[in-house]
Amino acid sequence: MVPADAASPAPAASASASARDAIAAGRTALGIEFGSTRIKACLVDADDPSVVLAVGSHEWENSYVDRLWTYPLDEVWTGLQEAYAALAADAEARHGVAPTAVGALGVSAMMHGYLAFDEAGELLVPFRTWRNTNTGPAARELTDLLGVNIPLRWSIAHLHQAVLDAEPHLPRLRSVTTLAGYVHRRLTGRHVLGVGDASGMFPIDPATGDYDADLVGRYDRLAGGRIPPLRELLPEVLSAGDPAGELTAEGAALLDPSGTLRPGATLCPPEGDAGTGMVATASVAPRTGNVSAGTSIFAMVVLERPLAEVHDELDVVTTPAGDPVAMVHCNNGASELAEWAGLFGRFAAASGRPADPDAVFDTLLREALTGDDDAGGLLAYNHLAGEPIAGLTEGRPLLVRTPGSRFSLGNLMRAEVYGVFATLALGMRVLAAEGVALDRMLAHGGVFRTAGVAQRFLAGALDAPVSVAHTASEGGAWGIAVLAAYVRARAEDGHDLDTYLRERVFRDVVFEIAEPRPEDVAGFAAYLDRYDAGLAVERAAVTALPDTTASAGPTEGSEQ
């Protein structure tokens, strides 16, 4: 498996010449993804998207302002420009040529949340991300009204919470979108979304591939004229392969202020990170699924049939092609594990033996293999934010043990890795009870970069084989680049997305498969039983230890 930021092997001369020609001629597809901690750019050969030509990235972090998680929007553009500049420099270093044009382009970002704009396109309130859990009253009312589960993080829950709170910006409200939709609109002038990202805003009717008209009508009656009709606010819905506009001169300047990049690239529909994760793991057909682990962690399982019941732990979204998907989404993923890695990295530096962060992470993950099957009685709660599946309105990271627990580095790290997967496993139990069958589960995300550790533990947590492809390290930026290339490919050969991925993109990809080990299955099950019982400690901590770290933030109307 190729580490996420490892340099590619030196290409053969012919391959290098081919790459140079593709970049110089603009026969490329550029994917940009706004993740929770990094903005990534990935350039691929449009004729063979399995060939990554160059990459670039920029680190950023959310802020907790006025008890809401947000990102300043000016950082969207500075971060995007730095990521693209790094990609252009990487192309120059690898192939001796920097791009002056790209043939296709796509934007992906973390799903859900609330970006509200007025008639002039000015942001009305600071961006409210998927991580916020203040939308409980709205989500409950909408779930009852619509008859489908509306999670706290969905855009319609954020919008309706603003309606319930009679927020003063509502009279000026003229459009609502996601982060990917916002960036796409600035690059092209089009207010559109891919169906996968749109399905995290409002329920989609699988028969039409559009917002469910009956449910839209129910909501408009509930809103009672307090906001414009919902269809006027929400982006137009497009499917994978649909052209979604062209890069304008203004958009090109936003992406590359140096003026080197020319406008004119065809854009694919903007998508959410869940959709690009499905593409990056070739998991868009029924009976396939994937797990994406980053700041959040979620599992996507493509359904053969509708779910029999409404479950709070499951929400139904779609693939980028519009097929229904059961999603188990957890707000808290590997961030707390990264905090521990940072702590040990600082210890190494303080002891006079500084180590590269990736080396520290790799060492700690491998140490987890020495731990007991059940993590020695340790429990690690990675809740930095609220966690609806666990019944938590706020997060309190905790490490819990009894006097009899076996407190070793191996058990600590195994408990932390188990903690990444624990809340997800609670949701997957519900999916299993629905009788949903899986032929394969694929995983991607930075935690899987160390071969044979997180992948093995996830197989034990799910009691199912887990596969990782070498492309998984490129993640969603690569996935949206593939979707960008697919626009032209579908116009040429008419293949559906699943066929395109299997026959064109993943044809020669080798998957590493981890089968569940009986000792890991039993050990994780014991851990999860204790973890479930110990959630009472987490809930008590939320009550007993108020979070006093919320800072004074920008006032309404400022662009953040």
TrEMBL record:
Keywords: Carbohydrate metabolism, Kinase, Transferase, Xylose metabolism
Example GO biological process: D-xylose metabolic process
Top-level lineage group: Bacteria
Carbohydrate kinase FGGY C-terminal domain sequence ranges: 290-486
Gene3D superfamilies per the UniProt record, alphabetical: 3.30.420.40
Entry GO MF terms: kinase activity
Domain Carbohydrate kinase FGGY N-terminal: 29-254
Family statement drawn from the similarity comment of this UniProt entry: Belongs to the FGGY kinase family.
Name this protein carries in UniProt: Sugar (Pentulose or hexulose) kinase
Protein species of origin: Leifsonia soli
